[in-house]
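Person: I keep going back and forth on a fold encoding question. Show me how you would write down a chain together with its backbone fold. Please set it down just below, with no commentary around it:
Helper:
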Amino acid sequence: MKSLKDIKQSKIMTAACGIFTAAILMMHYEVVSDEMIESIVPDSGRIVRFLLKLLYAIEDNFVLGILVALFCFLLYQYSFCLGKLKTHEGILGILMALTMLFGRAFEEFGTTQIFVMGSAQVVKTVLILAGYLLFFPQLVKAVSAYSRTHLCFQSGFDIENPKRYRWGVFGILIAVWSIHLIAFLPGMFMGDTEDIIYMAYNYHTGLADTVELISEDVLLVDHHSVLYTVLLGFFVKAGRFLFHSENTGIFFYTIAQELFTAWVLAQGLYQLKKYRVNAAVRTFILLFLCLFPWIPRYAIMATKDTLFADFLMLYLLTILDIAEERPEKIPIKHLAALAVYAVLIFLLRKNGLYAVLLSLPFLLMLNKKWLKAVALVMLCIFLSKFVYSDVILPAAQITDGSVSAALSIPLQQTSRYLKYYGDEVTQEEKEAISAVADYDALPEVYWPDRSDWAKACWKKEADSEDMKNYFAVWAKMLMKHPLTYVAATANNYYAYFYPVVVDLYEFERASDGSIASANVDGYFAFAASKSRISLAFRRLLRFGDAVFMKIPLINLLCTSALYIWMLVFAWTRSIVKKDRNLLMLVIPMLMLMLTILSGPCNGNIYHRFTYPVAMCIPLVVGYGFRNGTKNEEENCND
């Protein structure tokens, strides 16, 4: 039993931690100049000036400061009473603290050099890190404990009959998504849609100029999915042939994709019901799938990413069936489904191949007797990849995509190096770089958040010897300025872990821009609906977008980082709870995430790379909270 004195000291300590953390959370990273301090306190001594630099780094907002300090005090009061941090809570908290420290530096300044620009900055950085290391682990512990004991909801939308429940979910999704469809009739385009449609008609695109074509008569390039190009082209051509309208073709494609996506998600929630996930959890997931703009917009968008996410979900659901049933031998229907979905996944996006191949062997953690079955599925995938790449594409004289797609990271690093240290480059190094890329353009096109422009400098004539020489120079430059390479990479990926709100209005701008681009040569006459009801629904959706982007906490849904952290959370939970079934769902998404980090764009620029994770992870996390897992039912009864 604590004495009154101990309780008083504990509250003083808690208050001190709250005030310190509030000060840290309100501290900006920008350098406080000597001139500013001199203008405030003339002729101040060195120590006074040093301390003032730290104090004036704290934002001057009294009301916000009080609210933040009060929140931190209440958080620590609750958290400190829970005992010691668990290992996984500490690890997650430390990762969040480091992400916050470095992510904010890259977002605001594009470099970590801001941390060491003077002794005051170094001390400020240490204080900020200390504050984060205090705050985030305790936040993780408090949220984890509170959710276990206070957030065990049970009721929500449900229908006792599972099949009727699936149809009910399907109907709700279609009804809500129809608002987006009417607003953006005949369907939404994305930045690559016009290139895909052009290639479906064998019209020239810029992609044909990035490779050495097998045949000048075949302008289709396997940069975008050939399967998807054929599929979308079929609908556009059918619309023109049957209705003399490419708009009608896009409309029918949009309807088909929306119905398929809604069916996939309804199937996912149906299986969650089947495997003991309670109605409250499923209702929260359904609300997310209905209301969060990413999901319905992608459902009506002409992009391979939607179907990629759909088949990824079906792949995960098949794994879930296998994990739950734990048969002595995996049924043929499940093996066939795994193989078909895996092949469709890599045919839609090349990086999908690694997500499925690297994840399949982990099924042996559930039953080693499945070795032959897993090997058979992997063999089918390898054979399909071989037939597609080495037989079908050459036979059709379709050229593979540019090698530059796999060189996003090194080209971005070289681009930044030349921008800041171009005067240190020797003639020999310049010649090696010039053999593979436009040397003069590389430093000019450097964009920290996106490597597409650096990739565009690649020369299609570059051969293996040129690449060998380039990477020799690349390695030498790495040794000279390693932090430049680190900064180039971090700037391109920090928003996958540090929350930066994505502009939801970009959906509409990109769609309208892509439609205009598709029409520019006069080949097509696509047109977005200008009817009064469509325009009215667009205004309604713009207001909804503003709500999602501007309201604190809700706007976290508009960040790529949230879904990556949900994935990390699911991974951690599967390990802590020793939940191998959950781990089987997490591993393919972790493998996919690793391939995303080799892509060309930051999470605050393109959400299309994060979208498959954003669509699938709520169902995966929901499955992790199913009834019957260790300690779950006892906690709900507390």
In short: The longest strand covers residues 221-222. The CA atoms of residues 548 and 555 lie 5 Å apart. The chain is about 65% helix and 0% strand. Strands lie at 221-222, 399-400.
